[in-house]
Each structure stands twice: as C-alpha cells, then as structure tokens.
Amino acid sequence: MDASFTPEQDEIRRTLRDLLHRTCGPERLRAALDTPAGHDPRLWTDLAARLGLPGLALPEAYGGVGCSVTELALAAEETGRALAPSPLLATAVLAAPLLLALGTDGQRAGLLPRITSGRLTAALAVPGAHLATALALTGVNRGDWAGGGRAGGVQARRGGGGWRLYGEVGQVLDGHSADLLVVAAHAGGFARSRTLLFLVPGDAAGLVRVRQTALDATRPQGRLQLRDVAAELLGEEEADVLDALAAVGNTAAAVLAAEAVGAADRALERTVGHVGQRVQFGRAIGSFQAVKHRLADVYVQVQAARSAAYYAAWATSRGEAVGGLALAQALQALRTTAAEGIQLYGGLGFTWEHDAHLYFKRAAGDELLFGPVHRLRAHAADAAELFEGRAAANNMAGGGPRE
Fold first, then answer.
1. In this structure, are 17 and 147 located in the same domain?
2. Is residue 403 part of a domain?
3. Alpha helices (runs of H) in 164-240, residue ranges in sequence order
4. What is the distance between the alpha carbons of residues 16 and 73, in angstroms, rounded to a whole number?
5. Are residues 227 and 258 in the same domain?
6. 300 — phi, psi (to 5°)?
7. pTM confidence score
C-alpha cells in the first residue's frame, strides 16, 4: 500500500475545502438546517455541477468520474469537516451503488446520469432502525429486517400489472426530500418470502412523506407511509439483494469513517484554537499541562482513526471488508473529540446553541444510525473469527445481531 496521495487526490481535497470554507460557514449551515429539505440547494448545485461529487465513484459511461472509493472518502472527509448539509451520503454512497450493482441496463442508463449531474437525488429506505443490519455492519444480514413476510415493515405484492408497496418506513436519510426512493420490501408469503428493492418516485400517488425531528439536524431524516404505492422492481427478482447491500455497507462504512475523521479533526482544531485564547490565572489554559495531556490523547485518537479510514478506503477497492472496524474507530474518536471540546470550552460549550454541539450530535446520531461502536467491533471480530467459539455459538443461535 502506498500511503501517499496522488496530485489529483490532493487537488480534490484542496478544491473542496476551499469551496466549503466559502459557502458552508456556521451561519449558512444553521440556515440550511431550518429549510424544509434540511440542506442548501445552492451548495448541492456547487458540489454536483462544479465538482461532480455525486458521480465521483460512478463509471464514466454514466457521466461519472470513474474514481475509486478512496477519492470518495477524501471528499467525505472534507464535507465532514464542515458538517456540510447535502444529500451526498444518501444519494452517492447508499443509493447510487445499489442502482449500479442491481439495476437493469435501462434503469442504469435512465437514472445514473441524472444522479451524476445532480439533477436527481435518491435515498435508501430500510424499515425501522435497521439500516446498520441491512448493510451488514452490526450483524448478519438475513433479510428479516424488511418484515419477515409477516405484519410490519414494508410488504410488496403483485397487482395491476406491476408491484404495489404497503407499509411504513422511518429514519430514512433525506427520505422526505429525495426525488427517488430505493425501498427495501419483503415479497411473497412467509415460507417463500424474500427481500427485494423497489424504485418509487418521490411524487408517487399514495406516498406520504414527512420530515422527522432528528438528534443530528445535519442528517435530516424522513418518515414514509406507502399506501398501495406503485413501484418498479430494481433489477431482476433473482438478484442477490442481500449481498449487494452488504457490499454497499462496507463501502459506506469506509466513507463514513473518513467523514467522521474530518469532523473530529475540525472539532479538535477549533478546541485547540479556543484554549490558546481563553485565559485563566493570567495564562492561556492551553499552556496548562493537564489540558495539553487531554488534547494530546485526543490527537492520537484522531490520527489513529484517520489511518484506519484511509486503509479501509484503499482496502475496500480491493475487496476487503474492513469498513465497519474503521467506522467504529472513527465514531469513537469523533465522540471523544466533541465531548472534550465541550468541556474545554467551559460554560460557553455547555450552551445548546454552541457549534461544538453540532459535532457531538453528529457523533451520537451516526452511532444511532450505523452503530453502536461496540456492535460494529463485535461483528467485525466475528467475521474475522477472532473468537471462534463465540462465533460458532452465535451461528448456532441463528446469527442474529447481539443486543
């Protein structure tokens, strides 16, 4: 592995950091969070039209740039530094790879060029709080999270010459505003049930969408109600949907790890700047040995998480499934960094309106969506068979995720 970046990769980071510095300051960030969509359309236009981020890791045949996961992770690191509110994660990291992996030729040709241009946003809708399970990050993905062929989740039935969807989905990233929804649903009776993915336009008849109140406002979420909604099957019925979701989960974890590292790095940078200016007993508190030690420990955690994230991005392109472990390292580093920052800001940091809380909420919100950290690590250990006795016992019990 060559740990150095190419001039092109350095240019992606520099250009994106400059753009976000100009267009995504704290005031514009908070203003974007208060909009119905929860993100800034002008920022999304800049990211898509000027930098081509939605198509960064998509093939050139569909208007993409054709880069690897590494470039997408580096871009996510910069958006994480700014906590940039955009549909990038939902569209380019979760939905677009599924369209590429499972879609028919017609679906790819009709949808992916619109995604790469920024004209189409998409979201992956997984029932309930099961996104981490569906992506095989915290347990074995057996597909029962989509409803199990019984009541609950989303059900798919044939009718009227096509497929119809029934059910409700909550906590869908950008689900309230995405132009296209990729909905996971169970089809068939209980004995022959299987998980399939369906395409639903955002303006489909019978679809009701509302924005939910989320802990992390920079990750806007929506609740979907599907009332006899016409849907198009993504790909073919024989496609291995669960394997495709697991592959996307590994890639998404590597990208999310880099994003969390970017957020942690920026939070640490802001805290170091503050302790260098805040004066107590006639000295900047950053000169106190206790403060130096605390920040040194945080710095080590952030750098270790950065190394893990970079390796995961590189290894994912070569088929290694190490994204979940890197994500666990990065989420822990972000939570520690944000918490230390709040304490070292003193009374100011404990006010809810302070920007330090945005980073703390990002850490906690990402753990709720993609973690928690201990389950990410436990599943990675089982997958690597580090504890063979425990892995065997878990498999005999059905392989379900541990609580």
1. no
2. no
3. none
4. 12
5. no
6. -60, -40
7. 0.92
Amino acid letter, 238: E
Least trusted range by pLDDT, from 107-116, 152-161, 255-264: 152-161
Helix, strand, coil percentages for the chain (3-state, nearest 5):
55, 15, 30
Among residues 382, 381, 384, which one has the least CA distance to residue 393?
A: 382
Report whether 91 contacts 178 (CB < 8 A): yes
| Same domain for 102 and 81 | yes
The answer to whether residue 360 is domain-embedded is: yes
Question: Do 270 and 344 contact (CB within 8 A), yes or no?
Answer: no
- The count of domains in the chain is 3
| Sign of the CA dihedral with 126 first, then 130, 135, and 141 last | negative
Task: Please answer whether residues 227 and 168 qualify as being in contact, where contact means their C-beta atoms are separated by less than 8 angstroms.
Answer: no
Query: Are 131 and 175 in contact, with CB atoms under 8 Å apart?
Result: no
Token couple for 210: 């509302």
Residues 6+ apart with CB under 8 A from 253: 135, 137, 312, 323, 324, 326, 327, 370, 376
Q: Which residues of 349-373 are buried (b: 16+ CB within 10 A; e: fewer)?
A: beeeeebbbbbbbbbbbbbbbbbbb
Can you point out the beta strands (E) in 70-203?
Answer: 122-125, 154-159, 162-173, 180-187, 194-201
Give the model confidence (pLDDT) of 253-283 as tens digits.
999 999 999 999 999 999 999 999 988 899 9
Report the run of H or E that residue 233 belongs to, with start and end. Answer: strand 221-233
